[in-house]
Write a structure and sequence with these properties.
By secondary structure, this protein is of the alpha/beta class. The protein contains 8 helices and 10 strands.
Length: about 240
């Protein structure tokens, strides 16, 4: 069974009297330990796809299964658990998905360590355990010597490493990275992508949205979106190797 499966997923937004079809019947499967890049022009549907996968938004129709759990299935009556409640979606976001954002999304007035702790607080992990788990996540991204620094005391690359550590700390099923190098210079971007490659080598499943072809080539598979549809789904040279 695939780790993630979308079947005929649509998403329609109502903008005034106009229906905007952001996703038009998407079929997508991602296996455990895959490394997938999602590309496409603005308005192609890739951001909507990430929001649906990340349980930040729900499909208008179709089926979404994550790690064996039905997140949404409009073929099943709501009373029969055809879709998850808001609390259940929040649980999936916290336990199953690690988010890495272009703008880091760190809280500015707390340390790197406390930023990484946050998902564990929401998960109800005991303080002593969550501190050790957060320290271990920071060690994985080679930032243990900056754990007591606040974000404004860190470089852009270091802040993104904190964000990656926060994504890892709950041992999620999937890491979703939305333009993770978008605010970084070329040297720092290479360093962050080397880290992402290493995390994949350690067994993590990664889905990465990017506009940059050289970033997408780090993945083993590239899915191109256009007008709410998958235009192509191909292996990269790394995937073929």
């Amino acid at each position: 069974m695939a780790l993630l499966e979308l079947k005929q997923v649509t998403k329609v937004y109502q903008v005034g009297a106009v229906a905007v079809h952001a996703l038009r019947g998407i079929d997508l499967m991602v296996e455990k330990n895959e490394y997938v890049s999602v590309m496409g022009p603005s308005g192609s549907g890739k951001s909507t796809l990430m929001n649906v996968i990340g349980c930040l938004d729900t499909p208008t129709s179709g089926t979404y299964i994550l790690d064996g759990k039905t997140v949404h299935d409009d073929r099943i009556e709501q009373s029969s658990n055809g879709k998850l409640s808001d609390d259940d979606l929040a649980f999936v976001r916290n336990q199953k998905i690690g988010f890495v954002f272009q703008t880091f999304n760190l809280l500015p007035r707390i340390t790197a360590l406390h930023n990484v702790e946050l998902p564990l607080i929401y998960a109800g992990i005991h303080k002593k355990d969550r501190i050790e788990m957060a320290k271990e996540a920071l060690r994985k991204v080679n930032l243990e010597d900056r754990m007591h620094h606040q974000p404004n005391e860190l470089s852009g690359g270091q802040r993104q490493r904190v964000a990656i550590a926060r994504a890892l700390v709950n041992n999620p099923s999937i890491i979703l990275a939305d333009e993770p190098t978008g605010n970084l210079d070329s040297k720092t971007s290479r360093e962050i992508m080397q880290l992402m490659d290493h995390l994949h080598d350690e067994g993590n499943t990664i889905i990465l949205v990017t506009h940059e072809t050289d970033i997408a080539k780090h993945a083993h598979r590239v899915v191109h979106f256009l007008d709410g549809l998958i235009a192509s789904d191909e292996l990269t040279p790394k995937g073929k190797g």
